[in-house]
C-alpha cells in the first residue's frame, strides 16, 4: 500500500510538471517536417547513346514524382566524366537540356566540381546553364560533406 501511494504521488508530480510545461508547448508552433536530403553522385561518362545520363535523368524525375513538393533538398554532384552530362546538353542534346531545365525548376541543384574544370581545361560556358553558384571546390569533398550532413547517397 505504501508503495502504491509513492507511485501515485510520483505520477501526480509528473502530471503536474507536465501540465506546467504543456501551456508553453501548446504555444509553440508545430515543427515543420524535416526535408528529405538526397545526393545523386555522377562521375561516369554517358556511355553508348548517353544511356547512363538518360537513366540518371529518368531516375531523378521518378524520384521527384514521389517526394512532397518543397519537402526535399536534392542535389546532383558532378565531377570527372560526370560533367559530360552538362557538356552534352549544351552542345547537341536539346532533350537532355529540357530535362535538366525541368529538374532545376523543381528545385534540383546540379553542383559542379571546380577542380575538374581546372584540371580538364573546361570553361564554365561549355556547360549547360551553369553559373558560378553551381560550383563546389571539390566534387568528392562535396559528396563527403553532404553525406556527413545526413544526405542519402545514391550512385547511378
Low-confidence segments, ≥5 residues, pLDDT <50?
3-23
Order of secondary-structure elements: HEHEHHEHEHE
Question: What is the share of helical residues?
Answer: 40-55%
- Overall shape: globular
Count of extended strands = 5
Placed side by side, the strands forming the largest sheet appear as 4-3-2-1-5
Average pLDDT across residues? Answer: 87
Instruction: Work out the helix count.
Output: 6
Rg (CA only):
24 Å
Structural class: alpha/beta
N-to-C span:
65 Å
Biggest beta sheet summary = 5 strands, parallel
Strand content: 15-25%
What does this structure look like?
- With 156 residues, the chain is an alpha/beta fold.
- It is built from six helices and five strands, in the order αβαβααβαβαβ.
- The chain has helices spanning 2-27, 51-65, 84-91, 94-105, 114-120, 139-148; strands spanning 36-42, 72-78, 109-113, 135-136, 152-155.
- Strands 4-3-2-1-5 form a five-stranded parallel β-sheet.
